[in-house]
Design a protein that fits this description.
With 452 residues, the chain is mainly alpha-helical. It is built from 15 helices and three strands.
Length: 452
């Protein structure tokens, strides 16, 4: 007995939900309506993917900048790492040396010294010519003071002690500011109820212990009251702390939101691979625009700083130092976007992509065949690798992407390293698959097109 399949789709011209046969006219209308529904669905997906893509591209440079600002403001180690190199920059050192020398010379009253010398000589009966000569020593003495001060200051500023002092001062200052902005109760300076307080507890304990060690036993009874001193009160402290919390949220979650929007754009689009190429290209363009914007801002900044206030080379060094991590992050994302777009293209049906895949397949096949003939046969392992090539490729690429995500502030060098390792692993897996021998699955010797 033949089962009754009237409730299923009709392969002889019936509708999907009825066993009734359609006339040619009805069948044509049905196909037209179904095609129109598919077109509307694809258009809707294209529109949704386009909106998501535009949002991701517009947020991409903002996300990079927000993450960089959050790093510089909230991470003391990152901030110190940024500014430490300034202490060894020759242009910045020249500015510090010049200003410290000027301050020393300004605090030495050369005229008073020469006047006192002239009066002393005159009182002791020196000849008028000698007295007048002493009064004319202003210029040579000022030059001698400047030369001596500059020599000493240069030795100090260019030495290791200055760099250590620079790093320590910046670390303490940044830590104190962070304690105020976050409300943490660690460190000597802290923020409480709109007031900035200096904690003298450690100093009181140190003084009390030193007094006891010096023989003043009764100093141990010094009370612990009034261990803090209020430096000043401000109504804007709460606003600053709110801004710090907002920055922490934006710097953390805006990059995540951008990545999610880009992934949704690729997933929503009917052609995932094409949308991945478009997304990667768009991100690369936005990173190039961000680099251009940094160059423009640099030019504007240098033009706005008067040379009398700060020499151009020192101003350039300061700007480049502060934005170097932002520039590095932008370049890293640019390289990642280019690699992603290129990989998506090589995964497609293009003529060049097919040629590259065919060349790689022939190379792996030749290497695997050489191993097989040499007796290094991979057997069932090679068969499994050949059968599951798409899966193993996905695992290797996913591991590379995860390594970059977990890498603390990856650079272009880190991206190149991960890419090189991933390509090396893929090459080894392909050779091992080819070394299984001629009994591999049928068609294994021909270049495969990856599953889209």
């Amino acid at each position: 007995m033949v089962p009754n399949n009237a409730s299923g789709p009709s392969h002889s011209g019936g509708t999907p939900d009825s066993g009734r046969h359609l006339t040619p006219t009805e069948r044509a209308e049905y196909e037209r309506l179904r095609g129109a529904a598919k077109v509307r669905h694809r258009r809707l997906r294209h529109a949704g993917a386009s909106v998501l893509l535009m949002a991701a591209l517009l947020l991409a440079p903002l996300a990079v900048a927000a993450a960089w600002v959050d790093d510089q403001v909230s991470d003391t180690d990152r901030y110190v790492q940024t500014v430490t190199s300034l202490s060894s920059d020759p242009a910045v050192q020249d500015v510090v040396i010049d200003r410290l020398t000027n301050r020393v010379v300004e605090n030495v009253d050369v005229e008073a010294v020469t006047t006192a010398l002239s009066e002393t000589l005159a009182d002791n009966g020196a000849r008028p010519r000698v007295v007048e000569g002493a009064a004319a020593l202003d210029g040579p003495l000022s030059s001698a003071v400047r030369t001596a001060a500059e020599t000493v200051i240069t030795r100090v500023v260019t030495g290791d002690a200055f760099q250590q002092a620079w790093e320590g001062a910046n670390r303490r200052a940044h830590g104190a500011v962070m304690n105020m902005l976050t409300g943490e109760r660690e460190g000597a300076v802290r923020a409480t109820d709109g007031t900035i307080q200096l904690d003298l507890g450690a100093l009181v304990d140190e003084v009390r212990q030193r007094l006891v060690d010096a023989g003043f036993d009764k100093a141990s009874a010094i009370p612990d009251a009034e261990r803090t001193v209020t430096l000043f009160e401000t109504e804007k402290l709460t606003k600053a702390q709110d801004a710090m919390r907002l920055l922490d949220v934006v710097g953390t979650w805006l990059p995540v939101l951008t990545v999610v929007l880009a992934a949704l754009a690729v997933w929503t689009a009917p052609a995932h691979r094409v949308m991945l190429m478009v997304t990667a290209t768009g991100v690369a363009v936005m990173m190039v625009l961000l680099l251009v914007a940094l160059a423009v801002v640099r030019r504007i900044y240098l033009d706005a700083v008067p040379p009398a206030t700060l020499p151009t080379d020192a101003a350039a060094a300061i700007y480049d130092t502060f934005v170097r991590f932002l520039r590095d992050s932008t370049r890293t994302l640019l390289v990642v976007a280019v690699i992603t777009g290129l990989a998506a293209y090589l995964y497609g049906p293009g003529r060049a992509a097919r040629g590259v895949r065919s060349l790689a397949q022939r190379g792996a096949g030749a290497a695997g065949g050489a191993l097989h003939r040499a007796g290094a046969r991979t057997g069932s392992t090679g068969h499994w690798l050949d059968t599951h090539r798409a899966g193993t490729t996905g695992v290797v690429l996913g591991a590379g992407a995860l390594a970059l995500v977990l890498w603390n502030h990856p650079t272009v060098g880190a991206v190149a390293l991960v890419l090189g390792v991933a390509l090396a692993v893929l090459a080894v897996l392909a050779v091992l698959a080819a070394a299984a021998g001629p009994e591999r699955a049928a068609g294994a010797g021909e270049p495969r097109r990856p599953v889209p």
